[in-house]
């Protein structure tokens, strides 16, 4: 029973942290352009101009 | 002051395009931040107030992409999806945590532990239901005043289950349904969100602003002076001076001069049509050759183009009355759910079970019958199908388009731009070689005439690089002249260059120095695979024919090549009338068209498809838009729609089957929260898994 007193708040807090992270990501527009994000890793920022 | 602008740039295709646009826009003076959204094919720019969207459009065009500034209308709808996603996230978090606590209760936690867990569940569930349940409560409330929809039993079920569980928690009872209520919300919200995402995606893809036909024109005042007037200030009786390359702002009769007009916006006809004194001209047509003076007969709301817009609006109203399959199911299902729950409450009361136990059983019946799987059955299948079609280059505007497409039994095609490519293509550009091709490209690029553009495109596709031609000069309506390494270069009318050519064909001539002049002829070719596509459509059991506004001779060649019946020289009204006649006969018509003249027919058709090369009007009126030159996406879309409809029906059968199994248990009072949770998630998973079979439906 004592263990529960610690574990339940911890479990809820972790879940809540996940929810907060998701809502933050949503708010900051990270889900606006999923197809573009997949392509952007191909863009070479430091290299010479690529066409 | 920073302003935010959005531009639609349909030409973005790869990572290189993203990098190019962002890199070249960012250093532009006045631009604070430029970012490409690849999913919606848009460029989002934060910029200073004095930089106009028009300047941004020009800048993007200079980079090499066609762009169109967008109004801010799309913002509200996208916010709806985002709100739904937030509700999904909250419900998901809550249902997982409550489930964690519930599992302990189910596996035998008792006494103080059970009470503590119930209280914790209540603490998580109540705010969640208040927040995530809003979309359903709102819709149920407005439905109560008209006729019941599926949201009414959902809302009643969720609220009753929560209230009863709270009562159980306070009195220390054994069963709480918090997990069931929250999980129900979670699955239903996922369905809602999928539906909303699909609508957004198509909206941003096909969202096209009606390009104004002409913002205004040069009016000759009675005293002989000319002044530019906006289109809505032009009145019948005024005299309009239309320069070559300008669009007409009003309908009228030619008073002076002769020229040829590109009427493709209105009639869909590709060939420039000659007009002389006394000839009728329409707003929206493009004056190609020489300046003409026009006496205005109709302006603003009275023009043919405004008539077409009104017809489209009227024709589109029939489609908004279409009842989607999910709503049809809900109309049957919702009363059944209410009756079942009420009669099990009454039955147990009569049997003497006491109000508390009777209510508990009635709530269990409501939760079990509440259509978790029904809510997912349709959107899950349609979203997967729309995704598969999108990868194939077919854009679906909303889920009901797939439902309607699966019902179509008759196809009517427009000719120009739909069965044909809708643009002149040089038949023998191959005769230009080496430096001749390079010089011809330089000359063709200097003109906006459709023939010159077609030649430029064909040469560019062959990989020809333009030569450095000097002294480029365009003689409007005649041709382009220039000098290259001391030699005169000419591209234009055959008579101007001094060669003979058959008049009935679309031709242009090219001469470089003392080389013999070359005559190039152009044609509007049938789309590649058109024959195969028509054959496939016939194999699917649809009757195909052509409705065209073009000349009978031009229609005949295409009709013979494809083996279809055809009707020629139809006005937009005629096309609309033909579609309505077919509807009265009980047919469901699939209209495939592109031009403004097809607009009313596209809007009136049971379902409609337009190529991406269509006019803005065509794209806006159509339910599906396909990219590329091939016509094969049309039969592919029909097949995919039929498969989707099959999966939707299977999903309904699965969902109802689950209920047939679980409802008797609930009525008998045997359903515990554990069984309710298992039935709900089980049926939802099965339905989603079944929908995933559509991933390859567009092949």
From TrEMBL, chain A:
Pfam family, one: FixS
PANTHER family per the UniProt record, alphabetical: FIXS PROTEIN
Name assigned to this protein: Cbb3-type cytochrome oxidase assembly protein CcoS
Organism per entry: Sphingomonas canadensis
UniProtKB/TrEMBL annotation, chain B:
Ranges of residues in domain HMA: 3-68
Superkingdom of origin: Bacteria
Pfam families from the UniProt entry: E1-E2_ATPase, HMA, Hydrolase
InterPro entries for this protein: ATPase_P-typ_cyto_dom_N (IPR023299), ATPase_P-typ_P_site (IPR018303), ATPase_P-typ_TM_dom_sf (IPR023298), ATPase_P-typ_transduc_dom_A_sf (IPR008250), ATPase_P-type_domA (IPR059000), HAD-like_sf (IPR036412), HAD_sf (IPR023214), Heavy-metal-associated_CS (IPR017969)
Keywords from the UniProt entry: ATP-binding, Cell membrane, Ion transport, Magnesium, Membrane, Metal-binding, Nucleotide-binding, Phosphoprotein, Translocase, Transmembrane, Transmembrane helix, Transport
Location, primary (coarse class): membrane
Location of this chain's protein in the cell: Cell membrane
Membrane-spanning parts: 84-104, 116-137, 149-170, 176-194, 332-353, 359-389, 647-667, 673-692
Topology term for the membrane: Multi-pass membrane protein
Presence of the UniProt keyword Cell wall biogenesis/degradation in the record: no
Family: Belongs to the cation transport ATPase (P-type) (TC 3.A.3) family. Type IB subfamily.
Name of the protein in question: Heavy metal translocating P-type ATPase
Lineage: Bacteria, Pseudomonadati, Pseudomonadota, Alphaproteobacteria, Sphingomonadales
């Amino acid at each position: 029973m004592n263990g529960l007193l610690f574990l339940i708040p911890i479990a809820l807090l972790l879940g809540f942290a996940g929810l907060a992270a998701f809502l933050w990501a949503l708010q900051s527009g990270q889900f606006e352009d999923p197809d573009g994000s997949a392509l952007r890793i191909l863009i070479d920022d430091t290299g010479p101009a690529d066409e | 002051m920073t302003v935010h602008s959005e531009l639609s740039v349909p030409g973005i295709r790869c990572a290189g395009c993203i990098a190019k646009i962002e890199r070249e826009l960012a250093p532009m003076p006045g631009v604070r931040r430029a970012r490409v959204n690849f999913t919606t094919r848009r460029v989002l720019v934060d910029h200073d107030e004095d930089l106009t969207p028009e300047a941004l459009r020009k800048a993007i065009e200079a980079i090499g992409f066609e762009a169109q500034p967008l109004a801010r209308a799309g913002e509200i709808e996208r916010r709806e999806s985002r709100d739904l996603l937030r509700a999904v996230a909250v419900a998901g978090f809550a249902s997982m945590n409550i489930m964690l606590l519930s599992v302990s209760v189910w596996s035998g936690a008792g006494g103080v532990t059970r009470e503590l867990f119930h209280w914790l569940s209540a603490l998580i569930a109540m705010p969640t239901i208040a927040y995530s349940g809003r979309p359903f409560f709102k819709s149920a409330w407005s439905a109560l005043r008209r006729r019941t929809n599926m949201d009414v039993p959902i809302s009643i079920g969720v609220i009753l289950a929560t209230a009863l569980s709270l009562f159980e928690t306070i009195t220390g009872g054994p069963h709480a349904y918090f997990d069931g209520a929250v999980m129900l919300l979670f699955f239903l919200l996922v369905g809602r969100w999928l539906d909303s995402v699909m609508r957004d995606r198509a909206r941003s893809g096909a969202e096209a602003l009606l390009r104004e036909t002409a913002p205004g024109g040069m009016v000759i005042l009675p005293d002989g002076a000319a002044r530019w007037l906006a289109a809505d200030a032009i009145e019948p009786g005024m005299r309009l001076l239309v320069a070559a390359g300008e669009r007409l702002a009003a309908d009228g009769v030619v008073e002076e001069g002769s020229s040829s007009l590109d009427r493709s916006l209105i009639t869909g006809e590709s060939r420039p049509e000659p007009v002389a004194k006394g000839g009728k001209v329409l707003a929206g047509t493009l004056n190609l050759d020489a300046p003409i003076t026009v006496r205005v007969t109709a302006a603003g709301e009275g023009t043919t183009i405004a008539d077409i817009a009104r017809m489209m609006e009227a024709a589109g109203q029939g489609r908004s009355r279409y009842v989607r399959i999910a709503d049809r199911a809900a109309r049957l299902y919702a009363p059944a759910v209410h009756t079942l729950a009420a009669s099990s409450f009454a039955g147990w009361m009569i049997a003497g079970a006491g109000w508390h136990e009777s209510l508990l059983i009635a709530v269990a019946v409501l939760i079990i019958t509440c259509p978790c799987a029904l809510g997912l059955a349709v959107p899950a299948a349609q979203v997967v199908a729309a995704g598969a079609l999108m990868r194939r280059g077919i854009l679906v505007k909303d889920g009901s388009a797939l439902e309607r497409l699966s019902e179509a039994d008759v196809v009517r095609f427009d000719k120009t731009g739909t069965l044909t490519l809708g643009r002149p293509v040089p038949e023998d550009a191959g005769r230009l070689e080496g430096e001749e091709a390079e010089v011809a490209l330089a000359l063709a690029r200097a003109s906006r005439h459709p023939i010159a553009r077609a030649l430029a495109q064909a040469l560019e596709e062959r990989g020809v690089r333009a030569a450095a031609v000097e002294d480029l000069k365009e003689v409007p309506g005649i041709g382009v002249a220039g000098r290259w390494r001391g030699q005169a270069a000419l591209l234009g009318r055959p008579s101007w260059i001094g060669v003979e050519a058959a008049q009935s064909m679309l031709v242009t001539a090219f001469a470089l120095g003392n080389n013999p002049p070359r005559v190039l002829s152009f044609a509007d070719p049938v789309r590649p695979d058109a024959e195969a596509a028509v054959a496939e459509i016939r194999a699917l059991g649809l009757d195909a024919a052509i409705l065209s506004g073009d000349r009978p001779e031009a229609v005949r060649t295409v009709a013979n090549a494809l083996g279809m019946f055809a009707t020629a020289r139809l006005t937009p009204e005629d096309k609309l009338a033909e579609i309505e006649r077919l509807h009265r006969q009980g047919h469901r018509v699939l209209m495939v068209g592109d031009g403004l003249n097809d607009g009313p027919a596209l809007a009136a058709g049971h379902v409609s498809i337009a190529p991406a090369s269509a006019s803005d009007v065509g794209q806006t009126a159509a339910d599906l838009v396909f990219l590329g030159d091939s016509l094969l996406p049309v039969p592919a879309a029909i097949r995919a729609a039929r498969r989707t409809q099959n999966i939707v029906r299977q999903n309904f059968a699965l969902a109802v089957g689950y209920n047939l199994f679980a409802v008797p248990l609930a009525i008998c009072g045997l359903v515990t929260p554990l069984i309710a949770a298992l039935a709900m998630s089980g049926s939802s998973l099965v339905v989603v898994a079944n929908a995933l079979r559509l991933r390859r439906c567009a092949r």
